[in-house]
Task: structure prediction
Amino acid sequence: MPRGTEWSLAYQSKLGPLPWTKPYLEEEVPRLARVSRAPLVIVPLSFVADCLETLYDLDIVACELARTGGIEKVVRVASFNADPAFARIVAAMALQQKAEAA
Result:
């Protein structure tokens, strides 16, 4: 990340009435839009593979919140599964565990 780049962390997927780890994505994106109209880059740190939850929360909900708040450009970084090296790394880890267990 370039020096001076502003960033924040938010948590998605709150489900039900119980509190969840904060700040919530649904609160953080509008907050960011209030302080800047700069492009928003969304990085799904806690998911190694795309799933419906990630696609919906980030590609639909977060993008809509950003655009509603006046952020015109929103980019989501691909999850790890988008890189062919990811499958090779996971396979190597599994083979190493198998060898250690033998």
In short: The CA atoms of residues 4 and 34 lie 19 Å apart. The longest strand covers residues 40-42.
